[in-house]
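Final report, closing paragraph on structural work. Over the funding period we assembled a curated collection of sequence-structure pairs, and we close with a single example.
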Amino acid sequence: MSETTAQDAQMGRRERKKAATRQALADAALRLFLERGYDQVGIREIADAADVSTTTLFKHFPVKEALVFDEDADQEARLLAAVHERPQDQSVVAALREHALNHRIGTSNADPAFAAFVSLVENTPALRDYAQRMWLRHETALAHAIAETTGAPADDPHCAALAHFVLEAPRTARGRADGYETVNRAFDILERGWNDVSPRV
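Its predicted structure, as stored:
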């Protein structure tokens, strides 16, 4: 084995170990948060459950809230894929509606694990606020994806506005028993325009 190959192999092992540690921490945190509540679980408990030091934990997750959202990069990739990989006969807004309802709103038909996750976030103010900030970090990337797929300029204000409102729409479900329907109606406005939905106002 050449020196370069050996170094690559060592780096590969190191990256796999880091990824495994990160996943162990995220899994331990979510399990403890679901069992006892976010505010009742300390950082040291999470580190102990994953068999690492608190210093190691903070190398992977700079703040406690981030432990719940360990797939931030993957979330952005799925969001952009909803635009770029949608069927040819599906509008951008329809694709983003589908993404929001499937990935950000818990329903009675949702996978139990996902529903429990959504409930944890929605009932924990610190997590709820962090989640919204996290999603809004993807606003520029989403605006560029919308512009690219529609042939608009990269800095088109319509694309920027649509990206912002799409990412804000799930917030309308907060505290509502009919959250799924509420978000659906928000997307009706985005897709058809306010005048079409409520022409008298």
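Residues 16 and 22 are 10 Å apart (CA to CA). DSSP finds eleven helices and no strands in the chain. We thank the funder for supporting this effort.
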